[in-house]
Amino acid sequence: MGRTFASLKYHNYRVWFFAALIANTGTWMQRIAQDWLVIHDLTDNDAFAVGVVTALQFLPVLFIMPVAGALADRFDKRKMVFLTQLGMMVLALGLGALVLTGAANVVNVSIFALLLGVVAAFDGPPRLTFISELVPPRSLPNAVGLNSMCFNIARLIGPAVAGGLISLVGTGWVFIINGAMFLATLSALLVMRANEFHPAPVAEKKESTLQGIRHGMAYVSKRSDLLLIFCVVGIASCLALNNQLTTAAMSTSVFDRGAGEFGIVGSILAVGSLSGAIHGARRTRQPRVRSVVGAIFGLGVAMTVNALMPVFWLYTITLIPIGYFMLVMLTGANTAVQMSTAPEMRGRVVALYQTVNQGVTPLGALLVGWISNALGARWGVGIGAIGCFVAVLGAYVWGRQKWDVEVHYRIRNPLHLEILGPLEHGQEPEPGASSESASAERSGETERKNRDNKGGDARQEGGGASAS
């Protein structure tokens, strides 16, 4: 089996991968159907209404996900994921019934979005960290990359299928079909082999949930590399990752397209996302902070170009690099956070990362929706580009102050922009060696120290998710 698909040789991961592919496809179908239901069926192209529904769906992340992370470090992740997947199945079927009976309106759809957000907030940390128990530690970068690939294959298929189904049978049946597709993940969790798990150390159960959250925050506060990832990804997520909203607004208000074309737009974006996910799956070692920041810079450039496109086909084509850089950023950040964190702290740290990554979405959705209504949909995309450039500038200033960084640029692979640095104390890497090997050594040493320290405190800033 090739390097890209290496983790599929493990039975439990293979079962989960294909089940998640089915469920994720249904989830993307529901996302498209929900946006179309609000912007087309229940309102007159009101982007702000879509922003409100999106905000309500992601708002619970701010309050619930840290709690879910603490619970994920203390309890059986498989059981937690089973319950949350079952909850999302019930909500999808309920929303479908609401639409099919003609009872749907913006208010009750918003309530369902909020409830889905609550369940999804409990689902995120155990589901993401559960991946680390399905493969050996050495295979985690590949497994995380494949997980992103699975999500984006579904993102490629789901919107196109949703667009066709909406045109044929309406949004209600899309929700019903999505509910049925959760049977795949529920079945997969039941047929996994218990003797092939790679369980992580668990946090002490005598520790309260609140204490667990505080310990997670203290751990992150001592890690300047994690803090930087949290900040730059948070800014980009807030302003640049409102693709559901911006593609709906651009498709309807700028280019006057219907449900079929709207579904195709989502699939075109997924082509780029899939290529970015493949890039992540081929990674054999821990990604660096600079790769994440470089991807955010590329995302800003791509969004600037996308916002200026005069015709629909050019607009759709320029969604491909947006999807690519978006996934290089997210996969790199997710892998760096998971691999550089002590196993017994992983659930809490991933939960805090997801809180920043997803929890700012409600604020961004409201702002981008308001800007799209007030200034036009193109400005909704443009504010995302501005946010990316602000994040990169902030990372540069941070690097100059914390790591004595020197920033250079080079194109190494097609569409792959790297930021070279930080160079600790101004030391240039040896010719031909690059700072990658030194980075890996520092990362490995930090991980060993983390294991030796029971609390897993990484006291040396710049360790873990390599700063160089």
Automatic annotation (TrEMBL):
Using the UniProt annotation, give all residue ranges assigned to the region (Disordered). 423-468
- This protein's superkingdom? Bacteria
User: Taking every annotated instance into account, which residue ranges of this chain make up the domain Major facilitator superfamily (MFS) profile?
Assistant: 1-403
Q: Which UniProt keywords apply?
A: Cell membrane, Membrane, Transmembrane, Transmembrane helix, Transport
- Which Pfam families does the UniProt entry name for this protein? MFS_3
Composition skew (Basic and acidic residues), residue ranges = 442-460
- Report the subcellular localization: Cell membrane
SUPFAM superfamilies found in the cross-reference section: MFS general substrate transporter (SSF103473)
Per the record, membrane topology reads: Multi-pass membrane protein
User: Which molecular-function annotation in GO is an example for this chain?
Assistant: transmembrane transporter activity
Q: Does the keyword Membrane apply?
A: yes
Q: Does this entry carry the keyword Transmembrane?
A: yes
Biased composition regions of type Low complexity, renumbered to the chain? 429-441
Transmembrane domains' residue ranges:
12-29, 49-68, 106-122, 172-191, 224-242, 262-280, 292-313, 319-337, 349-371, 377-398
Provide the Gene Ontology terms for cellular component.
plasma membrane
Q: What is this protein called?
A: Major facilitator superfamily (MFS) profile domain-containing protein
Q: Which organism is it from?
A: Actinobaculum massiliense ACS-171-V-Col2
